[in-house]
Amino acid sequence: MNLESWLRRLEEARETDPSTSVGICLDALQQAPGAVVVRALGQLRRLGHDGFAEAALTAFPRLCHDGRRTDPGCAGRMAIAEGLLALEWNHTEPWHTGISLVQWEPVFGGRVDTAAGLRGLCALGLVRAEDARAPLALARLLADSQGEARRGAIRALREAPESWALPLLAHRALLRTEDVDAQLDLFHGLLEREHAAAFELVADFLCADWEEGREAAAIALGERGGEPGARRLWECLDAEPLRERRRPYWLGLALSRAEAGRGELLARLGTGGRELKREVELALDGVLDDALRAALAGGRPSVRRGG
Q1: How far is CA 78 from CA 8, 101, 130, 132, 133, in A?
Q2: What is the rounded CA–CA span in Å between residue 307 and residue 221?
Q3: 230 backbone dihedrals φ, ψ, rounded to 5°
């Protein structure tokens, strides 16, 4: 049966009684391509079928066989992984299979590994299953050639035991090879454990020559560094003579949840001179909110002009 026929059959199943609909969905998991499996899993969840996990586990290895044909884009296996994670599945299958899957598919101008996101989801599954082999598996995934897979490993490490998650996160952060968003995830993973050495490791990046690292560290210390993070941002700001290098510090302070951070920033802007306000306005372009605009206007609500 082709894709269109399966999709039509599933749509018709929605109009039948629940037991018949469940049977058709289970047939789809046993035989249909990945795009159909996504729909079938959704219908099974809506029907509250108790055998969802067992049926999904049967479908996963089938879709791994000749995956480019049976599950292009890995849509079916991604849906299975997401469904099992939502069920708090605490067994290691299919996580060990999925974390090593690679599926290159042609795209205009080259090819893409569509299994990168799936590897990240399976890393999270291994962590939540408390599998003894998870540390080595995630260490390998941190060195994956695909950024999406590495981001998945970082997200998984943020839920992993501190004893082995912190060293892996720190090592990846110190390599200085990720973009701002991925480096920010690494720093968040370090700071949310409230470990003094981890705090210092992130804070050290505030003075780094690597621009992306400085920005990620400033944002992370603003969002998760509390009062100590805010104080460190002010110290770096006051010590930096070059305006173009001060932008990350302003950004971190604007995003700070501490009184010593955002609260102090609003206070300084309320009484600061034109030069200070102009620098902050340029630095925070795109993230200015009503409170910051009012402070930049000298404590008065900003007035919009023009159409």
Answers
A1: 22, 12, 21, 23, 22
A2: 38
A3: -65, -45
Q: Which class for 305: exposed (0-12), middle (13-18), buried (19 or more C-beta within 10 A)? A: exposed
Cβ atoms of 208 and 214 closer than 8 Å: yes
The 10 Å CB-count burial string (b at 16+, else e) for 89-121 is beebebbbebbebebeeeeeeeeebbbbbbbbb
Residue 96 makes CB contacts below 8 A (sequence gap 6+) with: 122, 126, 131, 133, 137
Among residues 257, 260, 251, 255, the alpha carbon closest in space to that of 283 is found at 251
Please state whether the peptide bond connecting residue 94 to the residue before it is cis, i.e. omega within 30 degrees of 0.
yes
Give every CB contact of residue 275 below 8 A, 6+ residues apart in sequence.
none
| Average pLDDT for 106-128 | 96
Closest to 215 (Cα-Cα) out of 239, 177, 250 = 250
In contact, 28 and 6? CB cutoff 8 Å: yes
Q: pLDDT of 285-304, one tens digit each? A: 989 999 999 999 875 444 44
- pLDDT band for 77, please (50, 70, 90 cuts): very high
Instruction: Tell me the whole-structure pTM to 2 decimals.
Output: 0.87
Helices 147-157 and 116-128 pack at an angle, to 10 degrees, of: 10
- Angstrom CA distances, 294 to 76, 244, 279, 288, stand at 50, 24, 15, 10
Q: Contact 85/124 with Cβ under 8 angstroms?
A: yes
Q: How far is CA 191 from CA 42, 151, 226, in A?
A: 37, 17, 10
- The amino acid present at 93, given as its one-letter code, is E
Token pair for 139: 């260490």
pLDDT digits (tens, 9 = 90+) for 25-51: 989 999 999 999 999 998 888 887 777
The Cα–Cα gap between 105 and 86 comes to 28
* Cα–Cα distance, 92 to 104 (Å, whole number): 25
